[in-house]
Amino acid sequence: MSKASKVKTYRPNVAAVILSSRYPHTCEIFIANRSDFRNDVWQFPQGGIDEGETPHEALMRELLEEIGTNDVEILCEHPEWMRYDFPNKATKKRYPFDGQSQKYFLVKLKPEAQIELNTKIPEFNEYKFVSQDALFKYVTHMKKPIYRKVLDYFKKEGYLS
Description:
Elements: E1 10-19, E2 29-34, E3 42-43, E4 46-48, H1 55-67, E5 72-85, H2 91-94, E6 99-109, E7 124-130, H3 132-138, H4 144-156
Parallel strand pairs: 1-6
Antiparallel strand pairs: 1-4, 2-3, 2-7, 5-6
């Protein structure tokens, strides 16, 4: 089978658009800088769905593993699975998958939530809350089209302004 006709495989994954606990008075979105890359790679928390796990269960587990808390309220779920391909330089690291198929959730941190990036296996080395406009100045280029589509949906549903 030629490379061009190879069927691509996508890793099932969840991703969280996290709003600060000050929402809806202030609309600030959480982004974090990955600790496994040399350059700034800012993104939303995300992670694979384990076998037998629902997307909701994976979301709660991944939040706890990546940001040290899952004290969130789920506000909305994107109806579609969003796909993207890994960049060529990352394909060997991500083998056997060609990319990820992600289910996005909009969540709000509860007031008592405490973010802790120094988890068992730290994925991020810093985080910040930014406006929707500023978000696109930080996030990695390959994620921008999906992030725009997801945020536009949450805006259309009345959660973001």
